[in-house]
């Protein structure tokens, strides 16, 4: 049964295009956690991820009329997020000389009820996050888009503005580096 009290993402996009700001607000509410999570994975820094997420929604709002609907709204946001994160990392490199914070916390949105399993998962997650943070930005972006967002090599290439072959090579190199780091 369709819930008529909760409009679909497509309906919200149409309403927002028509000038309904509350529809855009609802789109933000529905997509923010995924957008922030991707930004965090790509930047490795919570503050940068918040800045990226803010930039994503500002750009999305301004470009909403140009959204063709060929892909889902959330997929379109992933593309904007990847671009904004790349821009943020470029700014950070110009303005900061710090390495990525090795102690990022990852929010477990679906914790298991077993404390031991939760602890083991947390330790593994910390090791993976640490290994990811050690990767160069261009390799980390490919891994995140492939492994966490399940994008194809072709989609990764499109997102990052590289060839499909380059995406495959970067993914292979990133996996090799992760094996070394783990």
Could you tell me the radius of gyration in angstroms? 18 Å
- What would CATH call the homologous superfamily of the largest domain? RNA polymerase sigma factor, region 2, helix turn helix motif
For this structure, what is the CATH class of the largest domain?
A: Mainly Alpha
Low-confidence stretches: 96-111
Q: How many discrete domains?
A: 2
Order of helices and strands: HHHHHHHH
What's the helical proportion of residues? over 70%
The major pleated sheet works out as:
none
- CATH topology value of the largest domain: Rna Polymerase Sigma Factor, Chain: A
Query: Average pLDDT, to the nearest integer?
Result: 81
Look at the helices and sheets and give the structural class: mainly alpha
Strand content: under 5%
Question: Which tags fit this structure?
Answer:
182 residues, mainly alpha, globular, Arc Repressor Mutant, subunit A, Rna Polymerase Sigma Factor, Chain: A, 72% helix
């Amino acid at each position: 049964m369709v819930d008529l009290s909760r409009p679909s993402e497509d309906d919200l996009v149409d309403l927002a295009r028509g000038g309904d700001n509350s529809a855009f607000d609802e789109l933000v509410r529905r997509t923010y956690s995924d957008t922030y999570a991707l930004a965090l994975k790509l930047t490795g820094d919570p503050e940068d991820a918040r800045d990226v997420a803010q930039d994503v929604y500002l750009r999305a709002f301004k470009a909403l009329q140009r959204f063709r609907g060929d892909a889902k709204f959330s997929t379109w946001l992933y593309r904007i997020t990847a671009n904004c994160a790349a821009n943020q990392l470029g700014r950070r490199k110009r303005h900061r000389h710090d390495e990525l914070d090795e102690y990022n916390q990852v929010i477990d949105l679906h914790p298991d009820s077993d404390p031991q399993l939760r602890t083991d998962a947390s330790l593994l997650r910390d090791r993976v996050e640490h290994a990811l943070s050690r990767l160069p930005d261009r390799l980390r972006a490919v891994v995140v888009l492939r492994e966490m967002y399940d994008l194809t090599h072709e989609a990764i290439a499109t997102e990052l503005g590289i060839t499909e072959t380059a995406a495959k090579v970067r993914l292979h190199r990133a996996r090799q580096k992760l094996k070394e780091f783990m």
